[in-house]
Amino acid sequence: MSTVNRLALIGCGLMGGSFARALRVACPALQVAAYSRSLASAQRAQVLGIADEVFSTAAAAVRGADLVLLAVPVTATEPTLRDMRAGLSADALVMDVGSTKRDVVAAARAALGTAVGQFLPAHPIAGKESGGIEQAEADLYQERRCILTPLPENPEGLVARAVAAWEAVGCSVVRMSAEQHDETFAAVSHLPHLLAFAYVNGVASQNAAARHLALAGPGFRDFSRIAAGTSAIWRDIFSANRDEVLAQLGQFESALTAMRAALQSGDDAAVARLVDAASAVRARWTLNGAPMPEDDPA
Amino acid sequence: MSTVNRLALIGCGLMGGSFARALRVACPALQVAAYSRSLASAQRAQVLGIADEVFSTAAAAVRGADLVLLAVPVTATEPTLRDMRAGLSADALVMDVGSTKRDVVAAARAALGTAVGQFLPAHPIAGKESGGIEQAEADLYQERRCILTPLPENPEGLVARAVAAWEAVGCSVVRMSAEQHDETFAAVSHLPHLLAFAYVNGVASQNAAARHLALAGPGFRDFSRIAAGTSAIWRDIFSANRDEVLAQLGQFESALTAMRAALQSGDDAAVARLVDAASAVRARWTLNGAPMPEDDPA
């Protein structure tokens, strides 16, 4: 890979801190400049050896950096990019780590204008139950996928630098459009969260909720685990990806309608067919077990 | 506990085999008579040391037994009880292990008539991913809950023997009505399965299904795990507990409607409130972490 000389870490939490730690391992001469809306987090990053210098503005932090990693909540993308623009070198590569991509692209266009070609949207599929700079670790991205959704304005050389950076921290890179990204993550992440939140609310609102919850077993545990997610994250994701989440909800409701119709009419053979169809798909599936399809419909 | 002298194991699979293994540990002098519709399974139980004798009819197997464990698919409850009735001792306690209880009670009334007071419906909350007599193990029921739904016809002495038997194999016993049982398991087990089956079918039916599944992560893995269940089990459970499952589906749909309305109208504050409500319930919940409520609404 082309070595990164100076990383500007904008936002000092789990995702950014882990990226900086991992990139230090790959590029031993790396200098890391940190900025965080919370000065304490940036200072903590320095104490932990994640950052070399702390700056009080994003523009100051990005000055002279060849790589800028924006690791802030997606709703902070536009103002943060605006703040940093004055300090940005013309050859700097800027990437984010957000869970949605169409809204991030729109924010980047609004904030960077003609400089938007320097911005390459990224979504590394990694995380931990608890966030914060204290949790940052160099192997967070090892053997994970990172999705890049390049813009038409991105020079291929810039995309190659982005791929090299994510590979350096341990990811395998997948390229697709922002639309494909948002559709897929609505399907496999955002909708399941929505359903899990609604399911738990449906159980908890009943008179017998205490009995139900006392007797719930391992099936409930796994099915509802993601309902422990917080609104600090999920309000913004649902809002940013609303159209795709609603479209996926429509897909789910069609499948649920078929299931209910079979059940209500006492058509056990139809119930069995629907169960078997789902079971065959799920029993075959394993985490990171399938290659990306070559012929990928948009 | 009052010792069990002779156990008749009717149905030789994971649940029954594990019960026999565990009861042998608790009652070293126990004799186990086995019957299975599949003679090979009963013979295998004998080879594995789970059963002492194998019989070719249920009536012969239950002769002289003070405890009969019916561990067959719930749809086989009525014919199997009918078959065994001629051999049943007047002081024998008969229990099942089925996942639904109202249909089992109806089957027992139909099959046993005036002898139904000997039948005590049971549902031990235990299992493994793979079934069969080969998988049977003595500790399957350790630290699990077993739900008993006694009939008005059950003498209290019989209920006490049932409690003692389940405690002997490691369970803590919870008593409730068959209606409460079926409502609760519709809420915490059957509905989540139905939703997971529908969800996977909804994802798999899309043009971009291969991309979605290739990129699905740990959230998808846990949320959809129960969709790998087979129709051999779930067709019967959904059929047996149809009314309660449909009622729980109604509860879910009310909660989902609230979620969708907030999302569609762009009311981020309402979305956040609904997410926080679910998250607070789920973050507090742990497996077997809540006591059964004292004041339990029917």
Layout of strands and helices, then pairs:
The structure is a homodimer of 298-residue chains.
Chain A lengths: L5 E5 L3 H13 L4 E5 L3 H9 L5 E2 L3 H5 L4 E4 L6 H8 L8 E4 L5 H11 L6 E2 L1 E3 L20 E4 L7 H13 L3 E4 L2 H27 L4 H7 L2 H7 L6 H10 L1 H23 L3 H17 L14
Parallel strand pairs in A: 1-2, 1-4, 2-3, 4-5, 5-6, 8-9
Antiparallel strand pairs in A: 7-8
Helix pairs in contact in A: 4-5, 7-11, 11-12
Descriptive account of the structure:
2 copies of one chain form a homodimer. Chain A is an alpha/beta fold and 298 residues long. Chain A has 2 domains: 6-175, Rossmann fold (3-Layer(aba) Sandwich), CATH 3.40.50.720; 180-284, 6-phosphogluconate dehydrogenase C-terminal like domain (6-phosphogluconate dehydrogenase C-terminal fold, Orthogonal Bundle), CATH 1.10.3660. Chain A has 12 helices and 9 strands. Chain A has helices at residues 14-26, 39-47, 58-62, 77-84, 102-112, 156-168, 178-204, 209-215, 218-224, 231-240, 242-264, 268-284; strands at 6-10, 31-35, 53-54, 67-70, 93-96, 119-120, 122-124, 145-148, 172-175. A 6-stranded parallel sheet of chain A has the order 3-2-1-4-5-6, with helices on both faces. In chain A, helix 4 packs parallel to helix 5, helix 7 packs across helix 11 (242-264) and helix 11 (242-264) crosses helix 12 (268-284). The radius of gyration of chain A is 22 Å and the shape is elongated. Chains A and B meet through helix 7, helix 8, helix 9, helix 10 and helix 11 of A and helix 7, helix 8, helix 9, helix 10 and helix 11 of B.
